[in-house]
Amino acid sequence: MNLTLKIWRQASTDAAGGMYTYQLDGVSEDMSFLEMLDLLNEQLVTAGQEPVAFDSDCREGICGMCSLMINGQAHGPEVTTTCQLHMRSFKDGDVITIEPWRAATFPVVKDLIVDRSAFDRVIQSGGYISAPTGAAPEANAAPVPRDKAQRAFNVATCIGCGACVAACPNGSASLFLGAKITHLGELPQGQPERYSRVAGMVGQHDHEGFGGCTNIGECAAACPKEIPLDVISQLNKDLRKAMTAGH
Predict the structure, then answer these.
(1) CA-CA distance, 222 to 163, in Å (whole number)?
(2) What is the pLDDT of residues 161-181, one digit of tens each?
């Protein structure tokens, strides 16, 4: 395939950025999207130009670092991570626009790399449990109903990629926050700090500058792990109880 790539280039957080156009030939439909960018960078380096900076790690769809806006869609046209998106989703002659996450809370570090440490600070504000250290407890010491265990497992698949924030017109991280709250709130180990947790995490979410949720649903549609929208309902329910309890 022969492609026209329009890519956001920005030297640093404080530098002005802009769109640059590149022509790329010889792209195989079997390549992943990141392999296509590797091919572009080989071409740029050979020509003595600065390669395009982008984030990646596992390339297996489990870490979320590969996050990109592709033709205006978080992670591209398929419900998957960017690294698991393949060029067979495009066709010869396509024009592909590639940008970093569009969110003020995720400032651009360079080119297509953004700083998502705001998510880390939200987790640090309460996304954990307190448990005694020592020998591992017996596996069945804390029975968990199957439906709760399954729901906790399903929402724990959130990889914190930030697609929900990038897709949301308000820049809200409510789907991410709801997934973390629901994951721990469904388990007995998460009960002692359940309401102080949600108060702390929502407070940090707002402090970081994430927007409010207006139930548009773009977050769930863009999520590569298909986190359901109803985790936001659970988030709001727990937050109301936390406020009533004075947390």
Answers:
(1) 6
(2) 999 999 999 999 999 999 999
Q: How far apart are CA 246 and CA 97, in angstroms?
A: 48
Grade residue 247 by pLDDT with cuts at 50, 70 and 90: low
Reduce the DSSP state of residue 69 to 3 states and report it. Answer: strand
Beta bridge partner(s), residue 18: 9
Domain ranges of the chain: 3-110, 116-129+144-244
Domain 116-129+144-244, what architecture? Orthogonal Bundle (1.10)
* pLDDT category of residue 134 using cuts at 50, 70 and 90: confident
- The count of residues in the chain is 247
Inter-residue contact 226 to 163 (CB < 8 Å): no
Taking the whole predicted model, whether its pTM rises above 0.85 is answered as yes
Q: CATH 1.20.120.10: does it fit domain 3-110?
A: no
- Cβ–Cβ under 8 Å, residues 179 and 231: yes
